[in-house]
Specification:
With about 575 residues, the protein is α+β, with helices and mostly antiparallel strands. The chain is built from ten helices and 33 strands.
Amino acid sequence: MRKRILVFFLLTLLPCWSCEKQPQGDGGGGDTPQGEWTVSGTVRGDDSNPIANVVVSDGHLCVKTDADGRYALNVDLSADLSSTLQYVFVSTPAGWAAPKEDGHAIFWKWLKDYGKNAEGKITGVDFVLTRIANPERFTIYIFGDPQPRTSGSGSWTNGSAYKSVDVCNDMYTDMKEYAATMTDRPVYGIGLGDIVHRDVSLLPAYRSGMRGTGITTYNVIGNHDQVNDKGSNATGMTDEESSKAFERIMGPTNYSFNLGNLHFLMLDDMIIRPGGTSDDCQTGLTDDIWQFAKNDLATVPSSAVVMVCAHSPMFRLLEGKDRTGQHLSELRGELSRFERVYAWAGHTHSSFNYYDKNSNLEVHTMGRVTGALWTNEFLSENGTPRGYLVFEYDAGRISWKFKPLFWQTAVHKYAGTDKEPDYKYRDWDYDASGRAILKTGGPLTDGYQMQVFKPDTYAPGDKTVYVNVFLWDEAWKTPTFQMDGSSARSPMTRVTESTGKQQRYSYADWDITAFYAGIWSGLKESWYDNDGKDPSNKLKNCTSIFKYTLNTTEDHGSGMVRVTDRFGNEYTSKVSW
């Protein structure tokens, strides 16, 4: 590994670079001496005024601008810049925005676009930022694994139902319409990797689609984004090589930025094994990426809320203990000094939250925004509908909720036939325009936070009401069931290994999976093979299922399920049988 100076500051007392020391702020690591530099520039506002104390990085070192907005980095320029993807990026400070292109923040500069001077240095790598009118109020769409494939591929992996490029188009429409209701604040997007499926030629279409939403998007790289220009799954490539095709179009894969009191640390946590492929990556951080993460966090005050975004969950999975991948325990230790840390990921295609009131770290894993893998159906793999998380920030107050996708405009038939599920357990239908209309009346909205299953659903004669609360975690209240005609609100029981292993799945998920496994050998021969007899054998466990067993022998009845989220919002759902 190249030797690097971790952090240093620049002062200007004369028209040359000073060799004085400057103390850092909280989290900066104390005094650090000046060192040699090879790349320099400035950070200014669009009013031409310098911006001080802005972090600038090459993805390894992190430095701050001085009072005149100047910075200098000691970047290794020994390689041929025309054949590399070396860059410098600005960690946009709170209250400022980088330029936007194709719906994405352009916060970096490619060094190949600058020539070296006679001393072999690069100067004038300058950044111009724009002040945000209302920096203390914003919304972020957080979504995972859009993962489109080309419609005309004809392969069994895209032979089913609704094409993934079509559902991406409906995602763009949904995000655009939802953002149009938020006229008092900027809206951002964070894509949690697997932006495409082994096909970087689809990245420009993704950029164009996100541009149409009107929001500003940031992304991390996923294992299926780690390919060569021909779409190979990184076979025979090193981990560093595997990200280059993605970076050429999307920019750096390890970087940071700031909004309000939030510091976003965006990391590539998928490591290609030696001789491996992007299909069997390890979750962890390479030495270089870990060094960058440590350097970046050293510039962040302890009072900040840190948002760590990566493709694969770095700290906790749906089941099991803390993860032990390369440098993950060290990263967790580095994060321990911050007031609050939210770790966001995708990759598993299942929604999962881990909350411990005694820890500063929360884990939030998003289901696939475009539905279950291969089928792209209306549910992701543990019963959460196609959709994304809507994160709200208002003067330091944080909240979020789930937003189901409203649109489905393409024909959803299996492999060009008339075969399709009966959608018995889908709570809405699509009208002729592709709009989702609830079977109880009215459009599908962000008020849809759970799915209730009536008695006899999981087993004949079972007088039990089940509910899947999509984003539930221990910070929510326990759902209650109230029988019509009764004033009692009875707490429901969370379904765990001890209370009902056979019901730790969404029955709607089972209904869809059983249909496709029955007609499509590609699914049956993979991880869905359960002969239609034991859904719990292969389906993804769902940790947000609750049940209530009725104290009645009546065959018909009705009631209300209620649940209150961690932010005090109550959601209700009527059930009749």
